[in-house]
Amino acid sequence: MNENDPNPLGANFAAFDLLATMVAVVRPGGDCVFANTAFEDVMRLSRRTVQGANLSDWFGDAARLADAVSAVARNAIASSRFDGLLRRGLRPHEDLLPVQVIVSQTDNPELVLVELIENAQQARQDREERTLDQVQATKELVRNLAHEIKNPLGGIRGAAQLLALELQGTELGLELNEYTQVIVHEADRLQVLVDRLLAPHRRAQVVVDVNIHEVCERVRSVILAEYPRGLRIERDYDTSLPDFRGDREQLIQAVLNIAQNAAQALHAQIAEGTAMITLQTRVARQVTIGKQRWRLALELHVQDNGPGVPAEIRDRIFYPLVSGRDGGSGLGLTLAQTIAQQHQGMIDCDSEPGRTDFRITLPLP
Ligand SMILES: Nc1ncnc2c1ncn2[C@@H]1O[C@H](COP(=O)(O)OP(=O)(O)O)[C@@H](O)[C@H]1O
Ligand SMILES: [Mg+2]
User: Fold this and answer.
1) Residue nearest atom 18 in ligand 1 by C-alpha distance
2) How far is the CA of 227 from the centre of ligand 1 (A)?
3) Which CATH code for domain 208-363?
4) Ligand 2 geometric centre to CA of 304 (Å)
5) Which tens digits make up the pLDDT trace of 63-108?
6) Domain ranges of the chain
């Protein structure tokens, strides 16, 4: 092995470039032999700069990393896991990124593997998995509940109608007609609600070639027809995105539900004339959705400059019947999430006052 060559084994590590987590391969002294693409991206440095540097240079707590690498290389321990701070960028403009560091052996005693997982990335993945599990559980609960309500509902309505019929023409009937009408009317309202709860599960998918920008444009024109004044809808499209197979009408429904919420949240800004929704599309690589990993995906961001999702429901907005506004059903986002999931995708939300971002991620072939 040529000691002057910083990367004598580089070719062997190419597969690490497929990982979303940062990976570096170092010598026992900490000199970097290889750094994967994710590492370069996060560090905002070229591979050439990273390779050949000592990995400890990039750490807030350099001694900790050096100790771990040397202990693993000596086989004093097989692996080590700790929280560290990654120095990112060039001094004096660097920032510190909290990461989890995992140092482990390779089959070559001269080389040690260092994995770095961004805490934010870890937290996000955990949150996404939790959301998917919870959505699944609530979906089942709601479906069962809806069925339980649906069955007696027909009976209640029918009985009220029979009662009205029996009493027709009598004095009592005149008096009680109002009540039987309330029963029928409320039963009908519940029926509509229950049907909406059951709807996403019931309809079969109609799979066609879908162009995400066609979906966006349809949503844009519907919203603009509804809010002709005071609301701007900007587009920021990556037109290189390929078509994919999916249910176009359902996807329009999903995006519409999200955009409608944004428009509703923007009423003060619409009155002022400053309301803005942005529809942005981007390619994403190596994304994890739930427990599945995809090489390629598209991201559609629906952003608004409204007041943000109320803090007290922020963690629960995808649950059915959770609504932050008067007269809301709390079903819009549940349905949107179900539709995204039927396309192996997911929706998540990042919101603060002045900037709310709903991101729809859909895998691409
Ligand atoms: N862009 C947004 N800005 C602020 N709040 C939002 C936004 N999108 C959703 N929300 C909140 O999430 C809630 C749930 O939305 P949704 O499931 O569509 O039910 P609904 O619209 O019937 O209330 C809304 O009531 C609202 O409080
Ligand atoms: Mg809604």
Assistant:
1) 332
2) 17
3) 3.30.565.10
4) 14
5) 999 999 999 999 988 899 999 888 876 666 677 888 999 999 988 8
6) 10-120, 124-202, 208-363
CA-257 nearest atom, ligand 1: 18
Ligand with the closest atom to the CA of 260 = 2
Alpha helices, DSSP H only, in the chain?
37-43, 47-50, 62-73, 119-167, 171-202, 212-226, 248-265, 267-272, 332-342
86 C-alpha to center of ligand 2: Å? 41
- Two structure tokens written together for 27: 């010598």
Q: For 10-120, give the CATH class.
A: alpha beta
* Cα(76) to centroid(ligand 1), Å: 54
Would you state the structure tokens that stand for residue 315, as one six-digit string? 């963690």
Ligand number nearest to the C-alpha of 311: 1
Q: What's the confidence (pLDDT) of residue 358? A: 98
**pLDDT tens-digit series, residues 127-181:** 777 777 777 777 778 778 888 888 888 889 999 999 999 888 888 888 888 888 8
Ligand 1, atom 14: nearest CA belongs to which residue? 323
Token pair, residue 166, equals: 């029996």
Ligand nearest to the CA of 352: 1
Contacts of residue 148, defined as CB under 8 A and 6 or more positions apart, other chains included, come to none
